[in-house]
Amino acid sequence: MSAGNPKRANNYTSQNKVQLIRGGKPYFDRLLEMINKAQESIHLQTYIYDDDDTGKEVAGALKEAVKRKVEVYLVADGYASRVMGTPFIHSLKEAGIHFRFFNPLFKSKRFYFGRRLHHKVVVVDTKYAMVGGVNISNRYNDMPGNPAWLDFALYVEGEAAKELCVLCWKTWKNYPVNMGLTPCEEKEIPFNFSPAEICEVAMRRNDWVRRKNEISSTYVNMFRGAKSHITILCSYFLPGRVIRNQLRYAVSRGVKIKVITAGASDVVMAKYAERFMYDWLLRNNIELYEYQPSILHGKIAVCDSQWMTIGSYNINNISAYASIELNMNVRNEMFAKQAEQVLLQIADKDCVRVTKEYYKKTNNIFKQFTHWCSYEFIRLIFYLFTFYFRHRN
Questions:
Q1: Which is more confident, 153 or 238?
Q2: How far apart are CA 368 and CA 111, in angstroms?
Q3: In whole angstroms, what separates CA 363 from the centre of its chain?
């Protein structure tokens, strides 16, 4: 199926109930609730796992789950989670948690070569799951005096959770050729939701090594198929040539596009590079907003108030080619409108509108040169970090 076509049901499961979860305390409250009610299994896979207060709280809940005879599988990216201390990792394993790093092709203390596990997913008992952009770290939690980075996740109960469980098993096993059925697939779990609750949900992945570009295709087809408007919230918004062409094409057909980007960023050079693109975006009549209260880290897009995509995928070439990404597409008009309203409220209350006039006032030759240098450097980094050798399992 066309990944972005909201009219065809292929690859979508229908027996699902979903909820949009904001990052910070709401996310971690839900995560701990899921862990605490687990009866059989927990799969937690994340890009960043810090052994700070938030990481220790989640670890404590996982250890308690093991005491209840729950099988717990934790995978953290070998690059981004390298801050985890050896004593902390030993405590996880000694408690009975199945833990491993997702490793690149080659690595040392100063060298990393290969793709990264960028998705963030938790699946409990093959029934409940959350997918989004929230990592396990104080930065993504509401801490005293420090509000969480702006992020979102999709909570789902139903058939989509079962599909996510299968993906987690395959990732845990490193995709063996003859894996057979996973424990998730061996279960027959009935899901019966009321007609008002049902949402069609599809899992979408990007993994260049395994020739998966489903999320990239979702965005391409979104821009090609949109009829009236698209609202995007995205950190590290640096669309490559293909997406820029599709943005231009959509606008030329009369589609109104709003993009909410970060005001402050944890990667300053990436933000400078992003601002270099503002001139192009404004010239192509794309509405721009910069989020002000904290760092923006979420990744959501809503199309025509009809359907949406949410997950770990940033609109840039690292997400397209270098990282393993996971998004969920949701087709439900009521839910899409609710999510869109959340984004519009953020744009209205928490953002500065970047108009052509505002851009001229806040820009000068020195800043433009700095932004251009950052843009060219980031492009070079993209090429360097997205090139690696295809390998056999």
A1: 153
A2: 32
A3: 31
